[in-house]
Design goal:
This protein is mainly alpha-helical and 254 residues long. The chain has helices spanning 5-12, 16-25, 43-57, 62-69, 76-108, 116-119, 121-143, 145-156, 160-183, 189-206, 211-223, 225-232, 238-250, and strands at 3-4, 32-33, 39-41.
Length: 254
């Protein structure tokens, strides 16, 4: 079956303007242009549009979607399996948050007593699952499943005071990094303070600490573009600067 822009838009619940933009952007070209100059879409394009809308629902940018679906190695069936896993993950996160809201409502109405730690359970569980989804495979391969499970348990058992202290540590670390980057010396006193704050921040998660693991993680910040983006969104080059500072701090860089 074939569809015009108007018919495919109605089928998918999106505007014809959006479809035209997808064509111009290069992620959904029509199968052909008919003699009257209208875009005509076939079954392959319908399936591609479904993939695009799945990715949009999962929060990917159009640039990211284009890179994925135009890759020669793109596997539609594998992508669907990944969509399915991600949607199940999202449902689990929502279930935890819904349960947390229901408990809080019951506490507010006086039907149950809820500790301060329990009030943040849903948010901490979501943080763990988000990290697992983004980085789980890489960090498990590098540090082992047992270490990651231990870190997750520590986060879940963290008190409100510990959580606030962790947030403060991270904020102070970023502030120190930004100031140290002004001088550009990863071995400076301020840069080494940032590296030490990073160690303290990691120790909240890891429980145990080793210089080798610290240096290895800092290198991952540069090697993995997702980690790089997390730091570099604050200031370009921050991931590399932190890596260098940590390598000085741990003795990995003499």
């Amino acid at each position: 079956m074939e569809y015009t822009v108007q018919k495919l838009g109605a089928l998918a619940g999106i505007s014809a303007r959006t479809l035209r933009y997808y064509d111009e952007f290069g992620i959904l070209k029509p199968a052909r242009i008919n003699s009257s100059g209208y875009r005509i879409y076939g079954q392959a394009e319908v399936d591609r549009l479904q993939q695009i809308l799945f990715y949009r629902e999962l929060g990917l940018s159009l640039e990211g979607i284009k890179e994925l679906i135009t890759s020669p190695s793109f596997d539609g069936a594998q992508a669907l399996r990944q969509h399915h896993d991600q949607l199940l993950q999202r449902r689990r996160q929502l279930d935890v948050l819904i349960a947390n809201v229901e408990q809080t409502l019951a506490h507010t109405e006086g039907r149950i007593t809820m500790s301060n730690e329990e009030k943040f359970t849903g948010f901490k569980q979501k943080l763990i699952e988000d990290n697992e989804q983004k980085y789980g495979q890489e960090i498990r391969e590098k540090y082992g499943g047992e270490a990651i499970e231990k870190s997750n348990r520590q986060l879940m058992n963290m008190t409100e005071e510990q959580y606030n202290a962790l947030q403060q540590l991270e904020a102070e670390m970023f502030a120190s990094l930004e100031q140290a980057m002004e001088d550009g010396d990863s071995a400076s006193e301020l840069a080494q303070k940032a590296a030490d704050l990073h160690r303290q921040w990691l120790s909240f998660h890891w429980g145990t600490y080793s210089k080798e693991a610290h240096a290895g993680l800092a290198q991952m910040y540069v090697d993995d573009e997702r980690f790089t983006a997390y730091y570099d969104k604050r200031r370009p080059g921050m991931a590399e600067f932190l890596r260098d500072a940590v390598h000085v701090y741990t003795g990995a860089k003499q």
